[in-house]
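Rotation project, supervised by the postdoc (A.L.). Task for the rotation student: set up a whole-complex structure prediction and record inputs and outputs verbatim in this book. Inputs entered:
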Amino acid sequence: MDDLRRSPLHDIHVQLGARMVPFAGWDMPVQYKGIIAENKAVRGKLGVFDISHMGQVFVSSDTADVASAWLDSILTNNVAKLKIGHGQYTLLLNETGGVIDDLIVYRQTDTDYFLVVNASMVEEDVRWMQEKLPASDVVLTNCSDDFAGLAVQGPEAVTAFQSMFDGAGQLPERFCMSTIATDNGDVIICRTGYTGEDGFELFCASATGPRWWQRCIDAGATPAGLGARDSLRLEKCYPLNGNDLAPDRTPLEAGLAFAVDLHKPDFIGRETLIRQKTKGLHRRLVALKQTNKSPPPRPGYVVFSGDEEVGTLSSGGVSPSLGCGISMAYITSGHNKIGTVLEVEIRGKRFPAEVVRKPFI
Amino acid sequence: MNVPDALKYTESHEWIRPDEGGIVTVGITDYAQQEMTELVYVELPDVGQQFSAKDEIAVVESVKSASDIYAPVSGEVVEVNEALADDAAIVNNSPFDDGWLFRLKLSNPSEIDYLMGAEAYTSRIS
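Outputs recorded:
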């Protein structure tokens, strides 16, 4: 426990009485008042999450388009198509098409790119990218330790932004970013999130993190922890790396074809994806909804169709919005059609669950 | 933290209330429900099932995790709290009263003597 890293907002969480848990090597708040209430605050009004554990990586080149061409050789989506100030969801794959990480890449200028990566994967991503760096002209800098991060999420995010920034800058459009100069230093604002609600992520110098947190609270945000964050993203079927994404699962199996540009001439992992696309997928990540009263579905539970084992849950829980058990599972092709009723085995008993359209809400 | 004097307690945070006729009522303590956070599901044994002390007898589940509940004493299940099927949060709101889990008919009444009193349990959780 001693070597857990602490966010710049750690003291605030402790003062608020948060329940702290180890997550990706960090000591992070899983909840303050309660996961269900925090989920509902984000869906109905506004929540703020500490995302200081996430990684920030800058990639730049001296010459225009050199960095983007390199990023396009290691990421699945199309960086060249990004306009300045725009971002896209994308994946970093291994040589066999499996997922190392999912991330968002933004084009700041024609020579500068900003990547936001998962906390648990910062070191591995950076090591992998460093190994793939061309001999010259592309510089990669891991600035994860310099930033505090806050995710401000909920239908009142726009109003909150206005009161927090008081005319100092404009809220970028969806999936865009901007850097705003303020009396608390420069902050990077990204109009993205992991909850399915409108909102933005704010990255600021670590030392100013507590002040920005307080501004979020003053703007009406409810502190929300990792537990609520997990339930919110699962309700929207956003994959969680380590659960729903893994080095032996491809983005096509995970249903992320929208973030893969197979028209690009080459990128690491492309061959496997082309083969899967031609020959068909053996399994797919589906959304399952418990149809009867059942214990909460949890990762690792096995899914059956009659006597046949057809998959394993990669994420699961009770949806605070729906009040029933929801999960995602990699299911053998043929059993993945919308409307198929399968069974989830929980402590030796089986409970029916229907394959439903993503997202759950 | 509420630890009623009249009850007996286990190391694993169940409480036991001796009732009439060799029957005990069992639940989880205020401390346990706070640790487990918001409960969303309670799986109870069937009436008529026999358990030995320390057997896994029930499961309570929060949004984040599932926790086993152990039979504090040996006996037969004579009643379960049906209300929890519709609202597991009763255990959070009223752990010592409306949130009771099940009743056991003791097969070995002397086992009660080995359980902790309120004072010992209070020092266990402090």
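Student's summary: Chain A has a mean pLDDT of 97.
Supervisor addendum: The first helix of chain A runs from residue 10 to 15.
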